[in-house]
Design brief:
127 residues, elongated, 4-stranded mixed beta sheet, alpha/beta
Length: 127
């Protein structure tokens, strides 16, 4: 087996490369983490079926997107009670249609179907 000689300049170059990789990894890791915060919260699904919201009450972290999907043959809406930070109402949701909203403000948001007022739900947004 032959021995490998390392000159001081070669060692310095290798250390510089390793340090550069380490610094880039830390920076990249922070970027991934920063993007991961929004992704971590992800989405929460609410199904509309049998003239009801399933689940009628959902608790999500700030930054989460809630997605409502109409599985009924009837047209429904997701209409929020007016208030500070209340999302805009959905359009008419035909069978298979979806409505999504990303909740960025903590609070309690009540909603109902404009066509079927007995259909009610709540989104609780926490930090």
């Amino acid at each position: 087996m032959g021995s490998t000689k390392y000159s001081p300049s070669r060692i310095v170059r290798q250390v510089a490369v390793l340090l550069s990789i380490g610094i880039l990894s830390v920076v990249a890791g922070q970027r991934v983490e920063a993007h991961g915060v929004a992704a971590h919260h992800g989405t929460k699904a609410v199904m509309i079926s049998s003239y009801a919201f399933h689940s009628p009450v959902v608790t999500v972290k700030q930054g989460t997107t809630v997605v409502w999907t109409n599985k009924d043959d009837a047209v429904h809406t997701v209409s929020f009670t007016a208030g500070h930070g209340a999302p805009h109402d959905s359009r008419d949701l035909q069978h298979g249609s979806t409505f999504r909203h990303r909740f960025t403000t903590p609070g309690v948001f009540h909603y109902h179907c404009a066509y079927h007022p007995f259909m009610r739900g709540t989104v609780k947004v926490i930090h």
